[in-house]
Amino acid sequence: MNFELNKQQEFVVKTIRKFAENEVKPIAAEIDENHRFPHETVEKMGKMGLMGLPVPREYGGAGGDLLSYYLAIEELGKVCATTAVICSAHISLVTWPIFHFGTEQQRRKYIPDMAAGRKLGAFALTEPNAGTDSAKQETKAVLDGDEYVLNGIKTLITNGGPADVFLVFAMTDKSKKNKGISAFIVEREDEGFFIGENQRKMGICASSTVNLTFKNCRIPKDRLVGKEGQGFKIAMQTLDGGRIGIAAQALGIAEGAFEEALTYLKTRKQFGGPLTRMQALTFEMAELKTEIEASRGLIYHAIDLKQRGLPYSEFASMCKLHTAETAMRVTTRCVQFMAGYGFSKDYPVERMMRDAKVTEIYEGTSEVQKLVISSKFI
Amino acid sequence: MAFNIIVCAKQVPDSDLVRIDPKTGSIIRKGVPGVLNADDANALEEALKIKDKHDDVYITVVTMGPPQAEEVLFEAIAKGADEGILINDIALASSDTFVTSTVLKTAIEKWAADNGEISLVFAGREATDGDTAQVGPQLAERLDIPQVTYASSFEISEDMKTVTISRKLEGYHEEVEVNTPCLVTAIKDLNQPRYPHMHNVFAPMKITSWNIEDLGLDADSVGLAGSPSVVISSFPLKKGKGGMFVEGESGAEQAANLLAALKDKRII
Amino acid sequence: MTDKTYRDLWVFAEQNDGVLAPASAQLLGEGTRLVKDMDGDNTLCAVVAGNEEDSRQAAADAIAYGAKKVYVIADENLTNYTTDGYTKAVCAAITEYNPDIVLYGATPQGRDLAPRIAARLGLGLTADCTRLDIKADDYIAYAQAETMLDPSTLDLDDVLLKQTKPSFGGKLMATMVCPKTKPQMATVRPGVMDSLQKDPAATGEIVAVNAGITAEDIRVTVKGKTVDAADGVALADAEIIVAGGRGLGDASGFELLQKLADKIGGVVATSGAPIDAGWIDESLMIGQTGTIVRPRIYIACGISGSIQHLAGIENSETIIAINTDKDVPIFEIADYCIVGDLYEVVPELIEHWDEYITK
After folding, report:
1. Do A64 and B197 touch (CB under 8 A)?
2. ipTM confidence score
3. Which of A187, A185, A199, A206 is nearest to A85 (CA)?
4. Would you call A29 and C289 a contact, using CB atoms and an 8 Å cutoff?
5. Contact call for residues C86 and C113 (beta carbons, < 8 A)
6. What per-residue confidence (pLDDT) applies to B68?
């Protein structure tokens, strides 16, 4: 067992940290305040190959290892949770399933552009009446000649506003419930496909979250990913990987808040000395630090299993559950440590606290993670 | 024949994090990461820009330093350089700028003997740890090629034979023209260094390590033994504890006392 | 070392269109002091390169500032400064007359030229010195008064030029000597040494040196010069910053700060409070949420020093703070603290600044 990072991994951390400090952090508060999608950051991430970090080289990716990829998400998450999720959703939820389940033709058509960041991906599963209970999917896809015709509405779709490539789940056979779901690639320009207005949120405000509407949206039948009826399996396997990404994001949020609070406590002087002199505070910081490191251990475990091709959905759920709750606790306490300053928008911890909340919600709520975990032992 | 560019790079302690041990007066390097010297990043970027625009450009980055200085070669290749050479030998410790330029010259000539003529050499104007700005000009002299220091803009002709450079001097810019091969020292204004590309990070890298024997140099001719300049002491200045309160009964008196103190300390 | 005799202290007299550079005048001032400390019989000399007219004028200037002898390399090929031409010129003079010490201003020209000469002649060279000593006692007195160095650990002599320079951006000083090669050479930071009063009546000897410079020697062609427009400096790069805080009382306070900034070559900035009050534009904010700065001189006027603000200025070389309240946090990190009314102090600084600056 060895937790030491190799040369490439260390370099990725160093590089993304510098990128995050110089390019992402300076605009994090502004894009949050204005609910503005950071197109410029996505372009920069594309230019440095970050949007295709774990994608094989023959498809235009960097061919990096999974840990390097998740370390990059963590570093982005330290300064801006929004930027982390844009990257994570693009890679884990769209690029990965198209690569993994798609045909060679689909891979060649979409992956190089996505790996270079020229095209952004969005994952469309959730519906107004079908969240975790995906068998309730109301979006339908009907084969008509050489085309599928899609009708329905998707909601709360991350990256939806600016995305070019959408992985959309729809019922091809309602009677088969989950086994009647299929996955399709929908392109931004497809006729009958409408992207809604940005939905306003409590946190990750700069990430685009939209409704998608399909009104007799006709797509060529070769946009089907996998076979008819494999959509649920594709979605679940995709979310397993995505959950590690969200855990890495949450880990970054927790670490970012911890660092902010620590710097503050070291410099803020009250009652004749820095606040770090107060053991009540430093002991609690010690607990938070321990939670952070415990989360990292779970994440590394999940990555190790996935990398070695072993079943990992249980550990994916555990690392997401634990890290999301850690992020929530750490950010909440850091706001408290910094008191008035913590609550103020002049410091980033209040944003981090708002951002942390979504990690307990998206890509499966904490309750869903508990369902997954408990299903393994009951 | 390829257009061969040499970029001289140095790993320096991250100057934002460097602290001085108040007792020994030495630099506390523990926990301070080494980084690519700032001006050298501009030097590398200019070479990469030429490679972006022209075919058949080959960039070799040369650094002299301890084994961990390989990190700057890794970074340079991650940004797009083709090859890195680390000159590492314990005998090189305490080399002054004269010896450093001799060693770099020897390495560059060795590379050229194996691979072909050098068309351009880029270096940073100065390193943040020594602040000497001497190695660039000294290397140019040792290679017997013209030098252009303080480059704030750089343009190479289509036939790659002539270079037009703007030099940022005090209060004015000087435009100069020079034929290749030549050595150019870069300053911050020259360009905005790019980030490494992940594609390069995970590709095989060509990094070679040479010691003084590989270069055919004598231990006596390098390091402390071979250097004309010798450091006899290194120390921090005294720092007053807290601030000095400037005395004075009136604003005028305080202002006069402040100005006198600033002048005395040569701050103004 | 050869058996040649090396004597005299030379200053490379940098000239621009015949006008002696201030850094060279300062070196002549310092040289006047140092030459007396040298072993044996030594003369303070200057070495000038340029075309006929420029070099003659600069030689006269050098004499007026203290040089007793000037070596002049006059050649039309030296009309513009070029590394190639000037290196050949100065090397010719050095190898012919064997000075013991040669000093250059650490100006862009001096820092371009001196290393090239050092490499050609195989000499040591110390860059950007801020202090020069020959006598061990002078060096020891300096070390004891101003540094953390214990000079008793050193083996010092009264012969070699002890060249002290900052490194790591001034966090550390280093002293170097060149015991093996002659001449001993250094570049010296402009503005640190004092020049003598210019004496137009002073006399000195002129020695013409023929370096045999040809047009082919000069490989870099100077095409032209553009004087920089005096537009605003970015905060992050500013050398001198004058910042105001809540203590200004109202927006007009920044007009006073602007006058100070204009006088001393600085730029105006602000802490957070004046922005909240709407006195000044947000882009000028210094601090954690604004710009992090690292000027040589930071003057904080009516700023109490929130953590947020202090985080943005802690890398300043010298911090001067003016505040009416002696207990404000900024005084804990300032180098010079003035408890007083900025509206009384700042106008005095503006009025008297010029009397104190080192010429």
Report:
1. no
2. 0.91
3. A206
4. yes
5. yes
6. 93
- Check A11 against B201: CB less than 8 A apart: yes
Local structure of C13: helix, strand or coil: coil
- Kindly report the average pLDDT of chain C as a whole number: 91
Check whether residue C207 and residue C272 sit in a common domain.
no
Query: Cβ contact (<8 Å) for C329 and A346?
Result: no
Q: Which CATH number belongs to the domain containing residue C91 in this structure?
A: 3.40.50.620
Task: Identify whether residues C116 and C253 lie together within a single domain.
Answer: no
Whether A259 and A285 have beta carbons less than 8 Å apart is answered as: no
Give the whole-angstrom CA distance, residue C188 versus residue A118. Answer: 53
* Cβ neighbour number for residue A210 with a 10 Å cutoff: 23
Task: In whole angstroms, give the CA distance from residue C238 to residue C305.
Answer: 20
State which H helix or E strand residue B22 sits in. Answer: none
Output the pTM of the full model.
Answer: 0.87
Question: pLDDT digit string (tens) for B245-256?
Answer: 888 888 899 999
Distance from CA of A368 to the nearest CA of B (A): 34
Q: How many domains does chain C have?
A: 2
Q: Smallest CA–CA separation between A61 and chain B, in Å?
A: 7
Of C172, C191, C217, which closes a domain? C217
Going through A159-247 in order, the beta strands assigned E by DSSP cover: 165-171, 181-187, 193-198, 209-220, 224-225
pLDDT tens, position by position, B64-119? 999 999 999 999 999 999 999 999 999 999 999 999 999 999 999 999 999 999 99
For C313, the domain range is 232-353
- Give the DSSP H/E element, type plus range, for residue C338: strand C336-339
Residue whose structure tokens are 């045999």: C212
Flag whether residue A71 sits within 8 Å of chain B, measured between CB atoms.
no
CATH for C321: 3.40.50.1220
Distances (CA, A) of A211 to A91, A126, A154, A207: 21, 10, 6, 13
- Catalytic hit among A75, A350, A360, A363: A363
CB C320 within 8 A of CB C334: yes
User: B17 and chain A: CB distance < 8 Å anywhere?
Assistant: no
Cα–Cα distances in angstroms (integers) from residue B105 to residues A44, B8, B46, B108, B141, in the given order: 37, 10, 21, 5, 9
Chain C residue with minimal CA distance to B98?
A: C119
Any catalytic annotation for residue A75? no
Taking CB atoms and an 8 Å cutoff, what residues of chain B touch A48? 194-198
Distance CA B113, CA C330 (A): 60
Nearest C-alpha neighbor of B136 from the set B151, B152, B128, B147: B147
Contact criterion met (CB < 8 Å) for A12 and B201: yes
- Does residue C208 share a domain with residue C262? no
